[in-house]
Design a protein that fits this description.
Layout (H helix, E strand, L loop, with lengths): L4 H33 L3 H20 L5 H18 L1
Helix pairs in contact: 1-2, 2-3
């Protein structure tokens, strides 16, 4: 446990950011799973749009590496195209 005030503040901020990042990563994983488990191409298209928006936001904020985001976007786009 830190004794210095600034260290305590950093720990609180770090914990809050960790919680927020975990929440966002979970939201992204759920969106990707929805795309892959969609039963029709139309619903997959809608879910893909949501997933891509979340992924782009994560890449902008460096939550996920931009190259990884590009790879995931390509995978889910290919999956939806194969469904159609």
């Amino acid at each position: 446990m830190p004794n210095i005030k600034s260290a305590k503040k950093r720990m609180e901020l770090s914990r809050a950011a960790n919680f927020r990042n975990r929440e966002n990563r979970s939201r992204i994983r759920t969106a990707i799973r929805r795309v892959r488990e969609a039963e029709t191409a139309e619903t997959a298209q809608v879910y893909m749009k949501e997933a891509i928006a979340l992924l782009d936001r994560a890449a902008t904020k460096r939550l996920i590496h931009p190259n990884r985001v590009a790879r995931i976007k390509g995978q889910i786009t290919r999956h939806v195209n194969e469904m159609a």
